[in-house]
Design a protein that fits this description.
Helices cover 67% and strands 3% of the residues. The protein contains 23 helices and four strands. The strands form two sheets. It has a two-stranded antiparallel ribbon with strand order 1-4. Strands 2-3 form a two-stranded antiparallel ribbon.
Length: 472
């Protein structure tokens, strides 16, 4: 049966190889099970969004399982899917505040509506064959700048969550002078374990880093109160997040949290407004180019490309778009293909059975919700994942056309604008608005496509309306 569905012999693989490849891919991307609910609920930033942690965790696992199964069975590729890093931060730091500024009764539900609409648009663009038009509307340099800028943003947030970088009224930010703080120690332990394992190409390095941070946190939580009042009672330790927020899970295995708080809660009507149009557009571009980059990258590695084209590309795009729509219905942000799938391909995965294996493992992970909540509720444990993912995303900056000033300046504005404005949308707007202007002033107006003007116009509206409204 498996041979008939996945054509194992034709692809030169076996059931055992595919299962091992699926396990490898799952280990490298499973950090999202902890990180996603911590991000969307706002627990990671100590700024509640209104989304239920447990419901988001269940939505994340179910959406990842459903999406990976669709990719494996319909497109028959060894590519796993889950809620994307980058899109989740845009959801929390940009889409939710924008919905609140627009007067939404439940801002996170309106933001979910924007994700849903972007997924439907992605699906329509795929079905009518308009993928190439969208793909070519943004220059390669700008695509890479977006990924690199979001990477810097995510890493910056990770350093702040760890307590390594602090706010400062004079210089905006500064290094924490108390490097012996338990929170910083937990973060550094997780970071160095993850970094060392990643450098050695150990599967699941980020997950192992999270678990190592959790082990150090648990050890310090138990040991610090017994090493003397002079130390345990010091302000650095007594007021640390470790002592005030980290709590042990009461059990390891439990029934999955209910989906009810987020299931079908997206506010589609609220998303279909002029105020939310720029955010729908950005969600669309982000998922589109994430998908393109991952599909091409993994396909090249696996040898799937034929004369520069990807067989069954339409099925792969439909799988991705359907996953985003389903994810919004379940209660999570944009679902997309994971570049971590390359690790499974390296392990020998060549068919959809690899992705289906990942799907099964995500469902199994639902049983460990108490541990996930314990780890996700204490930011220094998950901060190493943000820093490492951010560092890996920054590699995209190497592909920017630094020798072409009409590409360099808009890309640079995106790259630095996202972290410095603490807003993905604001950073993108700076770059996308400047792109056609710089091209025209540089005498290269023929390189500006109509879609670039449309996006720039939408973002001008975003600045004049949504951002000004938020500032009032």
């Amino acid at each position: 049966m498996l041979e008939r569905i996945f054509r194992l012999r034709e692809n030169g693989t076996t059931v055992r190889t595919e299962l091992l490849a699926g396990l490898t891919t799952f280990l490298t991307m499973s950090y999202i099970i902890v990180v996603q609910p911590a991000v969307l609920s706002g627990v990671m930033f100590d700024r509640p969004t209104g989304m239920d942690f447990g419901a988001v965790m269940t939505a994340t696992c179910v959406a990842a399982a459903l999406a990976s199964a669709i990719m494996g069975l319909y497109a028959r590729y060894p590519i796993a899917q889950a809620p994307g890093m980058g899109e989740n931060f845009f959801f929390v730091f940009t889409a939710i505040p924008a919905a609140a500024a627009a007067g939404a009764a439940v801002p996170w539900a309106t933001a979910l509506g924007a994700v849903f609409v972007s997924g439907v648009l992605f699906l329509l663009l795929t079905l009518v064959g308009a993928r190439e038009a969208v793909m070519n509307s943004i220059s390669p340099s700008m695509k890479h700048a977006i990924a690199a800028g979001i990477g810097l943003f995510i890493a910056f947030i990770g350093l702040q969550n760890a307590g390594l970088i602090l706010k400062d009224p004079g210089t905006a930010v500064k290094l924490n002078p108390q490097l012996g703080s338990p929170d910083v120690i937990v973060f550094l332990a997780g970071l160095f374990v993850a970094a060392g394992l990643h450098a050695r190409r150990v599967r699941g390095a980020i997950l192992w880093g999270i678990l190592a941070g959790g082990l150090v946190a648990a050890t310090l939580k138990v040991a610090l109160p017994h090493i003397g009042e002079a130390v345990a009672g010091s302000r650095v330790i007594a007021e640390s997040a470790l002592m005030t927020r980290f709590e042990f899970a009461e059990r390891i295995i439990a029934p999955p949290p209910s989906l009810a708080p987020t299931l079908f809660q997206m506010d589609v009507r609220g998303a279909l407004t002029l105020a939310m149009a720029p955010y729908v557009t950005i969600f669309l571009f982000m998922v589109f180019f994430d998908t393109v980059g991952t599909l091409v990258g993994v396909a090249q590695q696996a040898g799937f490309m034929r004369d520069g084209r990807l067989p069954r590309a339409r099925q792969a795009f439909v799988s991705d778009a359907t996953a985003t729509v389903a994810g919004a219905c379940l209660g999570t942000s944009t679902v997309t293909s994971y570049i971590e799938s390359a690790t499974g391909v390296e392990q020998g995965g060549r068919t959809g059975l690899t992705a289906v294996t990942v799907a099964v493992l995500f469902l199994a992970a639902l049983l460990f919700s108490p541990v996930v909540e314990m780890l996700g509720a204490y930011a220094p444990i998950t901060a190493p994942a943000l820093v490492l993912v951010g560092a890996m995303m920054l590699r995209n900056a190497a592909h920017i056309a630094w020798d072409d000033f009409t590409e360099l300046l808009p890309s640079f504005l995106v790259l630095v604008g996202i972290p410095l404005t603490f807003s993905i949308a604001d950073g993108l707007a700076l770059g996308f608005i400047s792109y056609p202007i710089v091209k025209v002033l540089g005498g290269r107006k023929d390189e500006v496509r109509a879609a670039s003007w449309v996006v720039a116009g939408l973002l001008v509206v975003y600045f004049l309306m949504a951002r000004s409204a938020a500032a009032v």
